[in-house]
Write a structure and sequence with these properties.
The structure holds 3 protein chains of 3 kinds. Chain A is an all-alpha fold. Helix content of chain A is 74%, strand content 0%. Chain A has helices at 4-16, 18-24, 27-44, 46-49, 90-126, 128-143, 146-160, 163-198, 201-208, 213-250, 261-269, 278-305. The longest helix of chain A is centred in the C-terminal third of the chain and has 38 residues, at 213-250. Chain A is globular. The two termini of chain A are 37 Å apart. Chain B has helices at residues 24-30, 63-70, 94-103, 121-131, 138-151, 168-180, 198-215, 226-232, 250-255, 260-267, 307-311, 327-330, and strands at 7-19, 36-48, 52-56, 78-83, 86-87, 104-107, 186-190, 218-223, 235-240, 243-249, 317-319, 322-324. In chain B, the strands form 2 sheets. Chain B has an 8-stranded mixed β-sheet with strand order 6-7-8-3-9-10-12-11, sandwiched between helices. Chain B has a 4-stranded antiparallel β-sheet with strand order 2-1-4-5, with helices on one face. In chain B, strand 9 (235-240) and strand 10 form a beta hairpin. The longest helix of chain B is centred in the middle third of the chain and has 18 residues, at 198-215. Chain B starts with 6 loop residues before the first strand and ends with a helix. In chain C, strands 6-7-8-3-9-10-12-11 form an 8-stranded mixed β-sheet, sandwiched between helices. The two termini of chain C are 26 Å apart. By secondary structure, chain C is an alpha/beta fold. In chain C, helix 4 crosses helix 5 (124-137), helix 5 packs across helix 7 and helix 7 runs parallel beside helix 8 (186-203). Classes of the chains: A mainly alpha, B alpha/beta, C alpha/beta. Chains in contact: A-B, B-C. The interface between B and C is large, with 43 and 44 residues.
Chain lengths: 310, 334, 327
């Protein structure tokens, strides 16, 4: 009972908060959140929810390859939206693929967020020479297109590692490649917010009692600059998911044996003109829906956290 | 510890310049020189234990910079700050400064910015306790926080709330509770009531007086409001463009101002007693502290300025118990 | 007939937690050429009253009751365009921060000339000449050289002078001045107040001076209205309100102001703080803080009533004896 009381109070406060109110008032946002939730649940629980296991060679029959969706005359009720060239159920592959897409997306965003926010807080709080060095680095990074950097990282990783090792580590390489290209945005936003916060009197009050600058940065300043960073992270998640799909589509992302939305689209692409449109259409739709939903959530969050637009 | 009446804080030749030039590249490209803002330009004063010493002046005169120099938020460009006889400017490390930081605290102007919005009040108030490791266990921290909150007229339960749940006056009480948590002897109060409504200002000023009497505190009080200064101060220093132009006990400063700038300031106070006294209109505005006038910085606005005032900066000299920096007073013209 | 008549004004803010009543049954009048001070602490509703009069209430705030008449003509129900013509031509406005009233992208002379041409049929040359004359009148040195300067090239005090020139440009009959000196240094405050008062006397312009600073009111206003929690607590000639306040709130307010040369150990203080709009006490809104509260105060809301002096106060202390007041 004693443990539940604060939780109940917290839930009540959340339900009563302005953010939740603005959420409920926007049907588009509610729909986007629902869609995102469907993807996350479908991805996380894919092994239990998916009608087939696309990795289990016992159940995957080459005979089932190129089955169209059920509403087609040649359709098979076992495969709702058809099968791919290897006889895997497209719906199941999408669910497992979203798993990879979301995991890479989240991990890449967290990676660039941690890196960017740390550098941004230090840059904004220290100022001067440190600030100049970090910001020039960010400028240099921003002149290179993200996808180019990701390709470069992948190329270097491929050259530096034996093939088996690269395949085993491919997913981490992708996460690193996407994450490393995102940090300057976080650093810039955090730096700006930090420069505003550090001149506020609560920071001066902490300095008067002689706290170490690092303590002040992370205990006082950081919690107060996270609002804009969260918005950026949400919007960044959609970008990271698309970036992963792009890399996989280009064949430099996760190995072809691992189902991801990008891989699936690439495979389907080669059968697009021979009539097997469903292999590429459904994963593409899934990708668009997922990215759009996450983006809409990010837009809403940006508006909800901006007191001027409220 | 020093006895009452002995100086607790002594400021000697204190100066702080700020580099306000544009970034190096812009300066080189546009061929501009470095610009220095002399926020505080060589001031001396001493604050006696148990008194309220005030600094008054218009915006940009450097009074807040003095406050920030004393509590260590800025490093002096030159000069010394002695606390209880120890030169703080000579203490290098954080560890060496810590015992003195505990004994002096600061109250800020804006109660909406001086409390971290993400922290609960109990953590805000307890932060100095934890930083100075003044109490050992969680139980005593909670007890001390409750005691502090009650002392400033809040309820002990208020510790659970966040700053945004309080009004401006209540927030300023929280700031005071926080400042008192390390048992300081000396409080620097930078415009503590300027952001508050007058009826709330009265509450806070009364609270500060009560606390001073009860805890034997010494205050450095910064304000632009002369009526407030008159009410709270024992002694007053008047600042203009980074320098002191008059230091005297409050009684004589307000009854018999000597420096022309002090007179000007007193003339601008609204006449609430409705005596029919007209506010003296003052010609001119405060010049930029980046390019202060030569000689006495006040001479362009001074009705009594002579040739010497335009050339030579006056020194702060004693006249009838007050310290005045004015050639006119020195020469007996005023 | 008074120049401005406000009767039973009510302003509400629609929020998701219900309607907040920011101004509740406020009536006041300003005579031709008169300076009415409206004083109160933050949250009293003084600025909202001013905004309601010039029709610049920001949504979700809106006038939900009462009438505002300028020279006998109702102005609270006008369409946006007709109200815009009245603003500027008949009612001028001066706000606390001069930068919000000036466009940073145009020279001050151009802004003045445009205002003049928008409300009169002056030619561009005539408007410019008038702009130079106005800048001179508000005490800007060398106006013919400063006329093309941009707002950021002026100091705070000089900018507020430009805003006054802008407000006076087409000789309005009323100026709403909301905290016009709050952002300025004390020595500049006196200059601005004297300027405003002098110019309005010359032009016969009435002023509604909204401020929290009793000192500014004391030396500028002819009459003063003291507001508390969205209502007028006391109204009367400035001297009487300052020197012999009748409402317990005004008394407390006056006692809490430190006054030069008055030796007191402690300032008299009103405990507590102004109620938030969502928690205005029933009866008299001041009753929980009032030292003279009676049983009736918590139940029945007092309207302004005669006090035996020139002031009227909304306080049951002055209820006519033996007469039950209803409504």
């Amino acid at each position: 009972m004693a443990g539940a009381a604060p939780l109940v109070a917290l839930a009540r406060r959340a339900a009563d908060s302005d953010i939740f109110y603005s959420f409920r008032r926007s049907p588009m946002t509610v729909a986007a959140a629902a869609m995102t939730l469907v993807f996350i649940v479908g991805a996380v629980f894919a092994p239990w929810l998916a009608p087939h296991d696309p990795f289990e060679s016992v159940t995957v029959e080459l005979l089932d390859a190129f089955t169209p969706p059920v509403w087609d005359a040649r359709g098979d009720p076992r495969f709702l939206i058809g099968t791919d060239d290897q006889g895997r159920d497209v719906l199941s592959v999408i669910m497992y693929g979203s798993r990879i897409s979301l995991m890479v997306g989240f991990a890449a965003v967290i990676f660039s967020m941690v890196l960017g926010v740390s550098l941004g807080v230090v840059s904004g709080y220290a100022g001067g020479f440190t600030d100049a060095v970090i910001m020039r680095l960010a400028d240099v990074k921003l002149t290179l297109p993200g996808i180019l950097v990701a390709l470069m990282v992948d190329g270097i990783a491929r050259a530096a590692m034996p093939r088996e090792l690269h395949d085993a580590l491919a997913i981490y390489v992708v996460i690193f490649a996407i994450g490393i290209s995102g940090w300057p945005q976080y650093a810039r936003v955090t730096r700006g917010a930090t420069m505003v916060e550090k001149n506020k009197e609560y920071v001066a009050a902490a300095r008067v009692i002689g706290l170490h600058p690092v303590t002040i940065m992370f205990r006082h300043v950081l919690p107060n600059v996270m609002g804009p960073v969260l918005v950026l992270a949400t919007l960044g998640l959609a970008l990271a998911i698309i970036a992963e799909a792009t890399l996989s589509f280009l064949g430099v992302g996760v190995p072809a044996t691992t189902p991801s939305l990008g891989t699936l689209i690439r495979i389907g692409n080669s059968f697009l003109f021979s009539g097997e449109w469903w292999i590429t259409l459904f994963p593409s739709l899934a990708l668009v829906l997922l990215a759009l939903s996450v983006n809409l959530l990010g837009d809403w969050l940006r508006d909800a956290l901006n007191p001027k637009l409220r | 510890m020093a006895e009452a009446g002995q100086p607790i804080v002594e400021v000697v030749g204190l100066a702080r310049y700020f580099d306000v030039s544009k970034p190096w590249l812009a300066r080189v490209l546009q061929g501009q020189p470095r610009l220095t803002l002399k926020a505080v330009d060589g001031i001396d004063f001493a604050i006696r234990r148990g008194e309220t010493f005030s600094l008054v002046g218009e915006s940009g005169c450097g009074k807040s910079t003095v406050a920030r120099l004393i509590v260590g938020l800025h490093r002096p460009t030159r000069g010394h700050i002695r606390f209880d006889g120890v030169d703080l400017t000579a203490l290098g490390t954080r560890a060496a400064q810590a015992p003195f930081r505990r004994r002096m605290q600061m109250i800020f102007q804006d109660p909406f910015a001086s409390l971290n919005p993400r922290w609960r009040v109990r953590d805000i108030v307890a932060e100095p306790l934890r930083a100075f490791a003044l109490v050992a266990t969680g139980e005593t921290v909670a007890g001390r926080v409750a005691e502090l909150l009650t002392q400033v007229g809040l309820s002990a339960n208020d510790g659970e709330k966040y700053p945004h749940e309080f009004s401006g006056g209540q927030r300023q009480r929280i700031s005071i509770a926080r400042a008192l948590s390390g048992n300081p002897e000396f409080l620097v109060c930078d415009e503590p009531t300027s952001a508050l409504d007058v009826s709330v200002q009265a509450q806070i000023l009364n609270l500060m007086k009560d606390l001073q009497r009860r805890l034997g505190l010494t205050y450095l009080f910064i304000s632009h409001n002369l009526a407030v200064i008159d009410h709270v101060s024992d002694r007053v220093g008047v600042m203009y463009l980074g320098r002191l132009c008059e230091v005297a006990d409050a009684q004589s400063l307000f009854r018999r101002p000597r420096h022309p700038y002090t007179r000007l300031l007193l003339d601008t106070i609204p006449d609430l007693a409705m005596t029919g006294r007209a506010r003296g209109p003052v010609a001119g505005e405060v010049p930029s502290p980046i390019a202060p006038p030569p000689g006495c910085a006040f001479h362009p606005r001074c009705p009594h300025a002579g040739e010497r005032c335009r050339l030579e900066a006056p020194a702060l000299l004693e006249h009838d118990g007050a310290l005045i920096a004015c050639h006119g007073v020195e020469e007996g013209r005023l | 007939m008074a120049l401005l008549e406000v009767e039973h004004l009510r302003v509400e803010f629609e929020t998701r937690r219900g309607n907040l009543i920011a101004i509740d049954d406020v009536s006041l009048a300003i005579e031709e050429g008169e300076v009415l001070g409206v004083v109160g602490e933050s949250g009293a509703g003084k600025s909202i009253t001013g905004m309601a009069i010039i029709g610049l209430l920001e949504p979700p705030g809106r006038v939900t009751g009462g009438e505002i008449r300028l020279a006998g003509r109702r102005i609270d129900n006008l369409a946006y365009d007709s109200m815009r013509r009245i603003r500027g031509k008949e009612i001028g406005a001066i706000f606390q921060d001069p930068l919000t009233s000036l466009n940073p992208l145009y020279g001050v002379g151009r802004q003045l000339a445009e205002t003049i041409m928008a409300h009169t049929d002056a030619s561009p040359t005539a408007a410019r000449a008038r702009a130079i004359q106005l800048l001179g009148e508000v005490g800007i040195p060398a106006p013919e050289r400063r006329i093309d300067a941009y707002p950021h090239e002026f100091s705070g005090g000089m900018r507020q002078r430009v805003v006054i020139a802008l407000a006076l440009a087409v000789n309005p009959r009323l100026i709403i001045a909301d905290e016009p000196t709050t952002a300025l240094d004390v020595s500049i405050q006196a200059q601005i107040i004297q300027l405003l008062k002098g110019l309005c006397r010359e032009h016969g312009t009435a002023i509604m001076l909204i401020t929290h600073d009793m000192g500014v009111i004391a030396e500028t206003a002819d009459r003063v209205a003291v507001m508390y929690a969205g209502r007028i607590a006391e109204v009367g000639p400035v001297r009487d309100v300052v020197k012999s306040a009748k409402h317990p709130y005004t008394k407390g307010l006056m006692g809490s102001i430190p006054i030069m040369g008055r030796e007191v150990e402690r300032l008299s203080q009103i405990d507590g703080s102004m109620p938030r709009l969502n928690a205005i006490p029933t009866g008299c809104a001041f009753n929980p803080r009032c030292p003279d509260g009676m049983a009736r105060c918590g139940v029945e809301r007092p309207d302004l009533m005669a006090t035996g002096g020139p002031n009227r106060a909304a306080c049951w202390l002055y209820a006519p004896l033996g007469v039950a007041v209803h409504g």
